[in-house]
Amino acid sequence: MGGTVMKEPAETINKPEFLFRNNVQCRIFRFLPALCGIALSGCVATGQEPHGVKPLYTYPVTSNETPYSQCLKELAPIKANNLPVFSVGEVADKTGQINYDENGHVISQGISEMTVSALYKTGKVNLVERLDLRIPLAEVKLAEQGRLNRDISVFKNLPASDFIIVGALTELNYSIASGGARLAVKGIGGGVRTVVINVALDLRVIDAKNFAVRYVSTLQKQIFGVEVEANVFRFFGSTLVEFEAGSVRNEPLQLGVRSVVEMGVYQIMTDFLKLPSSRSCALVETDHMSGHLQRLSPENGEE
Fold this sequence. Notes:
6 helices, Rossmann fold
């Protein structure tokens, strides 16, 4: 290429309960039944509204960015000729994790689409569709049958891929680190809990001309969550009134997935295609594992 360019068996998961709760919680339990009925009657739809219930609409639609989106977009103004043709195959969720509480997968099943979006942000590749060819091939079939206002000869010189990206989300580890504390005195108390989980992604670049694996990226990201809660318990006569309030601040799990995808694509653009990289976008290298090798070495067990 010339020019400068430049599932395994599902497992039941024991996720930290608060990590996927709503961000704000405020609950009152075992209060006076009459008061509850009065309160609920004011906010429940009766079905008699002549024009329906006005839906709640809060925040506007925004762009879907991660901190690494800026790194990808910084590549777009770089002058380059003979842009390579990329296609994206399956980038699957192979963590084997199923969320049985919500009847679905824990991890987004759109990782391939995230990869396509990340490549597009760079402006430094020509993208061709290979992930879902059902409609394109149906177009070709209809042209062959003479049912389109387009001649079949148009499809005889389709662009071939130079490189194909495939891979998988390979890790989802809960409670890498967790902690918390709680204190209550005479029915009044509070507490805080924290948790760290991580996701890992493995991508590879395949040369479409000879199927050789030309580049591999393996990345992980840790995700943090914290919960603060307060509780009050009081007896009014023979009735126990419990008030709980709290807040949860979680780094979105799927945002973490998109982040590792975008960093993986950035590596492909800079390490593999040799586009210039930015220091602010450099991969954070850690040596968390290096010390363990020396500790676990058989030589350390010798007397």
